Amino acid sequence: MLGMTRYQWTVLFAAWLGWGFDVFDSVLFNYVAPNCVPALLNLEVGSPEARSATLLWTGILTSLLLLGWAAGGVLFGYVCDRIGRLRTLMLTMLMYALGTAACAFATDIWMLMAFRLIASLGIGGEWAAGASMVAEVVPENRRVEAGALLYTSAPFGLFLATFVNFQVAGVWFPDDTVNSWRYVFLFGLIPAAAAFLVRLFVREPERWTRNTERSHTRLQDIFTPELRRITLWGTFVAVVALVTWWSCNAFIPTIATGLARDAALERGLDHSATLALVEGWKVRATTWFNVGGLLGTLLTIPFAKRVGRRPMFITYFALSSAAVLATFGLDLPPESRLWMLFLIGVPVFGVFGAFPYYLPELFPTRVRATGSGFCYNIGRVVAAAGPFIVGAVAARGAALETIFYVGFVPLIGVLLGSKIIETRGTRLQD
Questions:
Q1: How many CA atoms lie within 13 A of 220 on its CB side?
Q2: Which of 205, 304, 328, 347 has the CB geometry, 3.0–4.6 Å to 319, for a possible disulfide?
Q3: Beta-carbon contacts of residue 326 (< 8 Å; ≥ 6 apart)
Q4: How confident is the model at residue 292 (pLDDT cuts 50, 70, 90)?
Q5: Domains in the chain, start-ordered, CATH in brackets?
């Protein structure tokens, strides 16, 4: 299939699992935040104080996640070029699995913050290892398809997080708002088992083992005169995409919760029915966003191959702006707004399907993981400001209006799109 061997498909699947569980662990907090934050702050779930605190702390903890993600991405990108793709993939998967599961035992918001930071280091490091491994193993003429297929694991991770949260909080323990979120975090251990399976079937790519300069790799190598422009514009593209995605996605469960509680109040629902409506609307909101993201990810394949990487990024950024501004700017009924999240997901989420093949194309083997990890993850330092600002402002009662302004961020990518480096038709550098 696609002219790839069974082993090449095995490598792709291993990296697919690593990234899918990476996303799964990274977003679990966003689903449980409406119960988790009030429980750790000793606030009544559903009260105005709890809703305000949830918005604020969702922004703070998401920003912290992004900072740790950035640090882990840069650190383990460098480590990956030194010790290998496979070892780094396993190490980072174990780190984010244990860090997420530890959140279940947090007794206050500060302990939760510490465990989230540990998990975020592994989450950030996994991407560069998986993307570099896939790019170096698959055939040259299938790098785009393999890279996009690799990112389809992100919607899988979000679907899995949605399912786990709904099963635990909506089916198994619908009335236990004090502890149900702890059980959700325990599911973060699943990637630890997947890491051991990866080790059994995957080996280091030959491109990396043939590279005799790997012991001399330094972070500053990606800022040499021949690579400096590539690094800066690769980072720029990632920053625009990351700020937009996190400023929207981090608040989808929280916004869905607020809309559902308002609807429940209008309908005169009791406490139990309100909780059921909340969990149902969270599933609907995230499902529409994920389905759109999956479609957008797959569409990067024909777009990148037939038109080019630069036009693809410009188009996705333009559509991202239009979708966000329309969804949160128009006067829409709550259920229509949930459906519009599909239109946001296509460009805002889908554009990330290009990064697993685009960023590795920019750098030679000796600094491929270092450069890709830096571009993709250092942007999270800038992106971290997005959820923090949105959360702080939204906590004052203007959540939808605040996210509306996020729609102007991708317009920066459109305006400076001519500077994006085109890699269509180029071979992977040795």
A1: 0
A2: 347
A3: 340, 343
A4: very high
A5: 8-199+224-419 (1.20.1250.20)
> Which of 69-73, 170-174, 333-337 has the highest mean predicted lDDT (pLDDT)?
69-73
Please choose, from the candidates 422, 428, 425, 367, the residue with its C-alpha nearest in 3D space to the C-alpha of residue 134: 428
Rounded Cα distance between 29 and 17, Å, is 20
Q: What is the DSSP letter of 107?
A: -
Q: Could you identify the residue written with the tokens 């990296």? A: 15
- The arithmetic mean of pLDDT across residues 129-152, rounded, is 82
Which residue has better confidence, 297 or 177? 297
- Phi/psi at 178 (5° precision): -75, -35
* Predicted confidence band of residue 1 (pLDDT cuts 50, 70, 90): low
Which tokens is 252 given?
């989808």
- Closest residue by Cα to residue 409 from 393, 389, 388, 386: 386
pTM for the model: 0.75
Helices (H) and strands (E) in the chain, counts: 19, 0
Q: What contacts 61, CB < 8 A, 6 or more positions away? A: 29, 33, 112, 113, 116
CA distance 138 to 13: 12
**Better-scored residue on pLDDT, 350 or 83:** 350
Answer yes or no: is pLDDT of 346 > 70.
Answer: yes
For residue 426, the SS3 value is: coil
Q: How many CA atoms lie within 13 A of 275 on its CB side?
A: 19
361 touches 135 (CB < 8 A):
yes
State both tokens at 119: 């998990």
Q: How far apart are CA 418 and CA 403, in angstroms?
A: 27
Residue 348 has what pLDDT? 94
Place of tokens 């055939």: 139
CA distance 281 to 2: 38
Q: How far is Cα 136 from Cα 108, in angstroms, rounded to an integer?
A: 44
Tokens 């785009």 correspond to: 144
Average pLDDT (349-357) is 88
